[in-house]
Automatic annotation (TrEMBL):
Gene3D superfamilies: Phosphatidylinositol (PI) phosphodiesterase
Domain GP-PDE stretches: 63-295
GO biological process: lipid metabolic process
Stored Pfam families: GDPD
Record's keyword annotation contains Signal: yes
GO MF annotations, alphabetized: phosphoric diester hydrolase activity
Alphabetical UniProt keywords: Signal
Range of residues in the leader sequence: 1-30
InterPro entries, sorted: GP_PDE_dom, PLC-like_Pdiesterase_TIM-brl
Protein name: Putative Glycerophosphoryl diester phosphodiesterase
Claim: Signal is one of the keywords in the record: yes
SUPFAM superfamilies noted in UniProt: PLC-like phosphodiesterases (SSF51695)
């Protein structure tokens, strides 16, 4: 395989400089390339930096932007190159990705149960092992801006190794059976305060909390109609709410006592301005670059 090594120069809060290499692996004969207009990650300070230890949620700004699946309207979703591009652009303070479990128990970065929508193959993700996973190639959407090459979807370990401690991460555990594996990967890298573990199930969120990890619970607009979020405040660190929910339901979430309430999946400045005006303090978006260019209105002081 051909490897493209990109170096990121990061300046610590205490003026210390730490240089980290990101290695991107693509299909045989072609290394994944950043799209037109995106420069390599050499010699440039990043928007979030650390001093003596890994960057944690304590460093997040009052209003936080999350690149959902890396920013799926701007980059190939859940791809290493897409995550690198989102990190390089600096328009989000958190990188989000989805996780699935392979047949042999390897956690990988992927959203769907099947390969059909985003790769050149078909069949269930859980039907593959780690060796077979190396033969999977992502199929970038034609509608994406820029020029993107096909590449292998990464494993969770690879993403944690490349970004862990350098920017806050958010991963959704699509398979609750993966929690033990994910916890082990996060703990081994000292990232228990740097990675949110997301689920739609309050009981799974409770398990995440018991494992000593940062707990994120997402809820749909329909679920929020009858939810009582204050019941979860003892074990949920981040409540992830549907921006399409009614004003009263979002207001109830904001007043729940849960420290962070972020809204998904926002793609327009009007959607963003509404949820911020209602008191949400984070925006999970497929278009972080677009929102970064749009003036923000309506956020509470």
């Amino acid at each position: 395989m051909v490897a493209m090594v990109t170096r990121i120069a990061l300046t610590g809060l205490a003026s210390a400089v730490s240089v980290v290499s990101l290695t991107l692996t693509g299909p045989a004969g072609a290394a994944p390339a950043l799209p037109t207009g995106i420069r390599p990650l050499e010699g440039r300070a990043r928007p979030l930096e650390w001093g003596t230890g890994p960057l944690t949620v304590a460093a997040l700004p009052r209003i936080t932007y999350v690149a959902h699946r890396g920013g799926a309207r701007e980059v190939p979703e859940n791809s290493m190159t897409g995550l690198v591009a989102a990190y390089e652009r600096g328009t989000a303070q958190v990188l989000d990705f989805d996780t699935r479990l392979l047949r042999d128990g390897t956690p990988v970065v992927f959203h769907d149960e099947t390969l059909n929508r985003t790769t050149y193959l078909g069949g269930e993700v859980r039907g593959l092992d780690a060796r077979e996973w190396r033969g999977v190639r992502l199929r970038p959407e034609d509608a994406l801006p820029g020029s993107w090459r096909s590449e292998r979807p990464p494993t969770v370990a690879e993403v944690l190794d490349r970004f862990g401690g350098r920017i806050v991460l958010m991963l959704e555990a699509k398979d609750p059976r993966s929690l033990g594996r994910l916890a082990g990967l996060i703990r081994a890298r000292g990232l228990t305060r740097s990675v949110f573990v997301n689920s739609n199930d309050p009981e799974v969120a409770r398990r995440v909390h018991r494992l000593g990890l940062l707990t994120q619970l997402w809820r749909s607009a329909r679920q929020l109609r009858t939810d009582r979020p204050e019941r979860w405040r003892s074990y949920v660190d981040l409540l992830d709410v549907d921006h399409r929910a009614r004003d009263a339901d979002l207001a109830r979430a904001v007043k729940s006592g849960i420290r962070r309430v972020w809204a998904h999946t926002v793609v327009t400045d009007a959607q963003r301005d509404r949820v911020l005006a209602l008191g949400c303090d984070g925006v999970i978006t497929d278009a972080p670059g677009r929102l970064a260019r749009a003036a923000q209105r309506g956020a509470r002081p």
